[in-house]
Design a protein that fits this description.
The chain is an alpha/beta fold. The chain has helices at residues 16-32, 47-53, 62-68, 78-85, 98-107, 115-120, 135-145, 151-167, 172-189, and strands spanning 8-11, 38-42, 57-59, 71-75, 90-94, 127-129. It has a 6-stranded parallel β-sheet, with helices on both faces. Strand 1, helix 1 and strand 2 (38-42) form a beta-alpha-beta unit. Helix 1 (16-32) packs across helix 7 (135-145). The longest helix is centred in the last third of the chain and has 18 residues, at 172-189. It is globular.
């Protein structure tokens, strides 16, 4: 599949609930921005859902889609960390059942939802969660991150270098897991 020159990658998740929650907003975003190319990094399990969107979708090549993208809109999870390590600026999105979200916030006391922000211990990448996950908010972030000369984009890329240094190469998964557990335990003990 041929990728456009300058496009936004959409990663709507890998679970049915994520796809059902995130894909409708992404479809609306694409419809509102007909002059901006979008490409879904799709999972074949949901090919029917992706094909129904009319948005170009590429399967089994997520790293290629993300690494060549100008910007990525990514469902919260490990894909956010992978996107940052590929040095592609991103916006983290997530929406779930309000009851589940409320319970999760009560039991898991983390300041951020994105692995990138948790590891860097700051809001390095925008998090559009629950009611903030709207086309209007996404478009506002795109305006700040799409152009190579924008400060927010340069700042993200700089933070990704710091991120790479923090997690290193070998054993990165173990170090990340320990950092997250440490942060969660601090909140539990306080």
């Amino acid at each position: 599949n041929q990728l456009p020159d300058k496009y936004i990658a959409l990663l709507p998740g890998s679970r049915k609930q994520e796809i059902n929650s995130l894909l409708p907003v992404m479809i609306e975003l694409v419809a509102n921005n007909p002059n901006t190319p979008f490409v879904i990094a799709g999972i074949e399990d949901f090919a029917k859902e992706f094909e129904a969107t009319g948005i170009p979708t590429i399967y089994r090549q997520t790293y290629q889609v993300v690494s060549h993208a100008q910007l990525a809109i990514v469902c919260s999870g490990t894909a956010t960390l992978e996107t940052a390590l590929l040095k592609t600026p991103l916006i983290v999105v997530y929406k779930t059942d309000i009851l589940f979200y409320t319970l999760a916030k009560f039991f898991v006391k983390l300041t951020y939802i994105s692995l990138v922000n948790i590891i860097l211990n700051k809001l390095a990448i925008p998090e559009l969660i629950q009611e903030k996950f709207t086309v209007k908010h996404i478009e506002s972030e795109i305006q700040q991150l799409f152009d190579d000369q924008q400060e927010a984009r340069k700042k993200q890329l700089s933070d990704f270098i710091t991120l790479q240094k923090l997690i290193g190469d070998k054993g990165a998964s173990d170090r990340i897991a320990k950092k997250i557990i440490q942060k969660a335990m601090l909140f539990v003990n306080n």
